[in-house]
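Weekly modeling sync, notes
Attendees: S.R. (lead), two postdocs, one rotation student

Agenda item 3: backlog of single-chain predictions. S.R. asked that every request posted to the team notebook include the full sequence so nobody has to chase files. The rotation student volunteered to paste the first one in as an example of the format we agreed on. Action items at the bottom.

Example entry:
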Amino acid sequence: MNAQSGSFQEHLAEEIKKYGGVMIPVKALAMERLLVKEVEITKLHPNPDDEFCMPGIGPNDRIISEYMARYRKYGSMKRPDAIEEDPLIVEKVHPDGYLILNGHHRWAAFWLLGVKRVPVSIVNLTQKADIEEMIRASKHDRRITLDLDEVAFCRDDEPWEKPINGFPEYRFKERLRPGIPALLQYLSKQSYDIWVYTAEYYSIEYIREYFQYYAVKIDGIVTGTGRRRKGFAEERKNIENLVRERYQQTLHIDRRTVLRTFAGSKEFEEYPVEEGAFGWAQTVKSIVRKIEKNESYN
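Predicted structure, as returned to the notebook:
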């Protein structure tokens, strides 16, 4: 595999030299995200900010070899009709093709095996311009924040909210913890903007549509928070300044606490929440009622 590995390293270096610093994320239309499930491997570009592409870290030959052993049956096929493997998560970019967000070692294995077309899932991650637009469109001066991965979505062994009639379970695999939809509806009626965050590579549209089935309007959606990219620290600082200018207070809702913070102040209020699945949402709602009651007296 050494000669092959060297050839791939050359290809990787060429890709980074050609596209590094010039790729710009662009929105993929709904039909493209829905219908395009495989693309030519030549249209896929590695992410220069991923550890896979970093000198001194780079591709792991052992991991690539393991994927090659698993994928070898696809190697002799010029265009496999159906590759029964998890798709690579990609984002459409200018000037051409798709940026790999998740699946670099699998991409390398396919490339080394000569597979011409590979399975993909195209997502539209949240960009700085999206967040700025969400803030401008906000209707209130206070918000709640909720981590989808840690708070809203169920862990494997947890009970979940029964999906409403007509919910397309074949499209949406995530399950909400009991009481989450009712809690978010209540908070929205109390004049809070609803902001959700996730480290996963979900499209903005996917999350928005998911919650629409529960009649929940999401005002701010930030996806792919764990991804690496240049300029992120400065970008995050600018966004935090915009948030402070727009929102006077924020309720950060966690499994164990509700943390209330105030714009331009280091002061905060912390309210404990029992983590148990049933009654958790009702406890959070009671805390918000208490806050609202205290506010009405001030």
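Discussion: group reviewed the output briefly. DSSP finds ten helices and twelve strands in the chain.
Action items: rotation student to repeat for the remaining queue; S.R. to check formatting next week.
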